[in-house]
Amino acid sequence: APAPYNEPFRPQVHFSPRERWMNDPNGLVFFEGEYHLFFQHNPLGDTPGHISWGHAVSTDLLHWHELPVAIPATDKELVFTGSVVVDEKNSSHQCENHQPCLVAIYTAHNDTPHHEAQALAVSQDRGRTWKRFSGNPVLDRNVPEFRDPGVTWNDETKSWLMVVSLPNDHKVVFYTSPDLIEWTELSTFGPAATVSGQWECPNLLKIPTADGKQSLYALKIGVNPGSLQGGSGEQYFLGTFDGHHFTQSSDPGSHGWTDYGKDSYCAISFNHLPAGEPPTLIGWMDDWQYADKLPTVPWRGQMTIPRHLALLKDADGLALQQTPVTAPIRAKSTSLVASITQPTTTLFTTDQPTELTLTIDPADAQTFGLRLYSDPAHWTEVAIDRTTMKLSTDRTHATNITAPDFPARTEAPLSPNRPLDLHLILDRSSVEVFAQNGTTAMTNLTMPTTQNLRVELFRTQGTHPLKVIGQRWTLRSVWS
Ligand code: FRU
Predict the structure, then answer these.
(1) In the chain, is it the N or the C terminus that has fewer CB atoms within a 10 Å radius of its CB?
(2) Ligand 1 centroid to residue 407 C-alpha, Å
(3) Ligand 1 centroid distance, CA of 269 (Å)
(4) With pLDDT > 70 as the criterion, what percentage of the chain qualifies?
């Protein structure tokens, strides 16, 4: 058998559990020098079931150390998605020895009868062990579906704020609490924009503008199925939160998709980050359409690269800007300079995970981009079409995976006013694309047939040289 973390398809710069099933990230929190990543996990199998909270810690968001299951499923409840907060001042009266403790707010899910309510667990030892709160559930509407609490400390109201989903109503509900135990309803948001499928995994985050002078709130909501690319996806709203209500901004750009690929879902942001650290998002790099059919062994599921978030305001209006976090693993750097008039040219070949930043002057080329060949018959194409002003990723030729809905070409609109740059993270089984200064993100699994890539630049039409200037980094595996 291949060495652990070196199996075919095993991501080298993204988190995946050593074994078994994983879906949503949960309880992202920074506490006493460690980033915590909890996650929806089946410790007993490689399909969803016996859902518990898995756990990993890191000091740089990239090198993760997996720990034993944090909150196990019981006969009575599955431990569905939720948050972890640092109870600095023992507001819950659950922290021992006058020390801050970690409080998890999760959805206790029951299949028979179908029921979901919000419950607490507490850790006195930096997330290593957890005890369920004796007064669970703390928030129950007596409805079958009511889940995925996103809880944060609201510094303006000096109280805890929860945003939680009523999936079939396409609504999120805001609640406030002084102690994480008594919750009072404040308001609801929705239905709005895309209301197909179910709404899941809401997350409200405060995001400073790129110049640091202002901030707005982003309300991010998972839609499954029926998102933009067909399966699971995430829309966001930008606006204000006055302590009671979220109000979507009237500026253009106040609604969008956090990611235009098929494989970014239930992303949430870190609580309790050190001052000055930008909001940081991690999502599940997968899609419910085929997540349980992927050919990865002995694990199933991986996370996106962590992304720093900022808000841009320009001639087009508002935009959410995502920047992948990779600095700690950037190794060898090479400049890329290319100028092509012919249809294709090879830029480089590699067997390592790679980060690329490219600034492109297309001259009179109409379509251009990169083809990532794993062998002559299998490739993923990342393209910009200037006629339609669309970014696309086409993985229909990338793999032999025949799971329905896996072969796909995803598309995102581009702005004629923003630069035509690309920023890519290429791992063994994924292609993450950030375009136009990170204002468009597109994440897709690829599962190619080999681990060697030949990266080709291509163009169509025109006769003038298309010019590319860029940088290429070899990324160090986080497992070595
Ligand atoms: C989203 C989701 C959540 C739920 C969890 C169960 O992927 O369906 O709504 O809490 O997964 O694992």
Answers:
(1) N
(2) 24
(3) 16
(4) 100
pLDDT beyond 90 at 23:
yes
Length reported for the chain: 480
Does residue 406 lie within any of the structural domains?
yes
Same domain, 271 and 348: no
Instruction: Answer yes or no: do 94 and 210 share one domain.
Output: yes
Q: How many CA atoms lie within 13 A of 291 on its CB side?
A: 25
Q: Is the ipTM of this complex over 0.85?
A: yes
Q: Among 324, 341, 363, identify where a domain stops.
A: 324
Number of domains the chain is built from: 2
Place of tokens 């029921």: 115
Q: Which atom of ligand 1 is nearest to the CA of 284?
A: 7
Which ligand 1 atom is nearest residue 40's CA? 12
Domain region containing 394: 328-475
b/e per residue, 179-191, with b = 16+ CB within 10 A? bbbebeebbebbe
Instruction: Give the active site residues.
Output: 24
- Residue 224 Cα to ligand 1 midpoint, Å, equals 10
Residue whose token pair is 């006629």: 387
Q: Is residue 13 part of a domain?
A: no
Give tens-digit pLDDT for 384-427.
999 999 999 999 999 878 888 999 999 999 999 999 999 999 99
According to the model, what pLDDT value does residue 401 have? 84
Say if CB 56 and CB 313 are below 8 A apart.
no
Q: Which tens digits make up the pLDDT trace of 185-231?
A: 999 999 999 999 999 999 999 999 888 888 899 999 999 999 999 99
Cα(302)–Cα(25) distance, rounded to whole angstroms?
10
Give the domain CATH number at 185: 2.115.10.20
Query: Do 186 and 254 share a structural domain?
Result: yes
Taking the centre of ligand 1 as the mean of its atom positions, its distance from the CA of residue 426, in whole angstroms, is 27
User: Which residue's alpha carbon is at the smallest distance from atom 6 of ligand 1?
Assistant: 80
Indicate which atom in ligand 1 lies nearest the CA of residue 147: 10
142 burial class (0-12, 13-18, 19+ CB within 10 angstroms)? exposed
CA Rg value for the chain? 22
Please check whether residue 42 lies inside any domain of the structure. Answer: yes
Contact call for residues 34 and 59 (beta carbons, < 8 A): yes
Q: Which residues line ligand 1 (CB under 6 A)?
A: 23-24, 40, 51, 80-81, 107, 147-148, 200-201, 265-266
Question: Which ligand 1 atom sits closest to the C-alpha of 200?
Answer: 9
Based on the fold, state whether residues 209 and 339 are members of the same structural domain.
no
Q: Ligand 1: which residue has its CA nearest to atom 9? A: 200
Shared-domain flag, residues 304 and 355: no
